[in-house]
């Protein structure tokens, strides 16, 4: 009987020793943290954080889009902490989710998931570029459409194609001295807009004044706006009007 007790204790000791030297399970591999999606010019990129490990971890990133049930691998066995998922966004209006897991040696962590993200709603788009010209008693403002990136390919915004996420109107802010006027330019007005730019003509009733212009685009959904452009200015004076008129008009000073 005493022999059986000793044998049992010995076997338990061996079992504990084996457990102590066994490889750690999957739960011992930390999961990634702060999984976020950022998008600029409709180019979504996933970012995450990971703690320092004795062995270099590698990561797998998967994407799931609303309406598609399967998770699709976007990046695999990468050591950096970001992944470009542009190639997996078919429609910038569709919601998407991302999950990331780490692998250290032969062990993998559980997945860390992102919040729901919609490129058109939550992403950022660069501001329109502006040009300004003085023409007689008016100024002409050129509003150049931002470049956007869909599926990783750069293209100019085409307002005549059936695309799902686009700029429908520009808010143009014209500041004269300390007063500001808001103009709205519809991208659907063919007289004012084409595939490259829109134009706005503003009368110049006040001479010897500085006219400053900035603009932002408003998307067709959710009221999302692009970034606002930097302000550009031009000064209108009596002499500048004379120079612009030249032989085309007669300008007479009141004395």
TrEMBL record:
Subcellular location, in the record's words? Cell membrane
Stretches assigned to the Fibronectin type-III domain: 11-110
User: What membrane topology does this protein have?
Assistant: Single-pass type I membrane protein
Work out whether the entry's keyword set contains Isomerase: no
Q: Look up the signal peptide feature and give its range.
A: 1-17
The record's listing under Pfam families reads: IFNGR1_D2, Tissue_fac
One GO CC term, this protein: plasma membrane
- PANTHER family, A to Z: INTERFERON GAMMA RECEPTOR 1, INTERFERON/INTERLEUKIN RECEPTOR
Subunit structure, interactors included:
Monomer. Heterodimer with IFNGR2, to form the IFNG receptor complex. Interacts with JAK1. Interacts (when phosphorylated) with STAT1. Interacts with SOCS1.
Protein name, as recorded: Interferon gamma receptor 1
Native organism is Sapajus apella (Brown-capped capuchin)
Upper classification of the organism:
Eukaryota, Metazoa, Chordata, Craniata, Vertebrata
This protein's encoding gene: IFNGR1
């Amino acid at each position: 009987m005493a022999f059986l007790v000793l044998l049992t204790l010995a076997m338990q000791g061996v079992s504990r020793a084996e457990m102590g030297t066994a490889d750690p399970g999957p739960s011992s591999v930390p999961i990634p943290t702060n999984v976020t999606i950022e998008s600029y010019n409709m180019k979504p990129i996933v970012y995450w954080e990971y703690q320092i490990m004795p062995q270099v971890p590698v990561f797998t990133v998967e994407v799931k889009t609303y309406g598609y049930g399967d998770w699709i691998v976007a990046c695999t066995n990468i050591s950096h902490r970001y992944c470009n998922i542009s190639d997996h966004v078919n429609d910038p209006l569709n919601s998407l989710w991302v999950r990331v897991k780490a692998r250290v040696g032969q062990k993998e962590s559980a997945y860390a998931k992102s919040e729901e993200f919609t490129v058109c709603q939550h992403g950022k788009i660069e501001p329109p570029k502006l040009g300004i010209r003085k023409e007689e008693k008016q100024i002409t403002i050129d509003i150049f459409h931002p470049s956007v990136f869909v599926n990783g390919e750069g293209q100019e915004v085409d307002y005549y194609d059936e695309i799902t996420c686009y700029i429908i109107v520009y808010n143009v802010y014209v500041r004269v001295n300390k007063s500001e006027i808001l103009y709205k330019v519809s991208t659907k007005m063919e007289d004012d807009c084409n595939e490259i730019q829109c134009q706005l003509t503003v009368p110049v009733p006040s001479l010897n004044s500085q006219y400053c212009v900035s603009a932002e685009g408003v998307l067709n959904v959710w009221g999302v706006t692009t970034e606002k452009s930097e302000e550009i200015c031009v000064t209108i004076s009596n002499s500048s009007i004379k120079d612009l008129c030249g032989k085309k008009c007669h300008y007479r000073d009141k004395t």
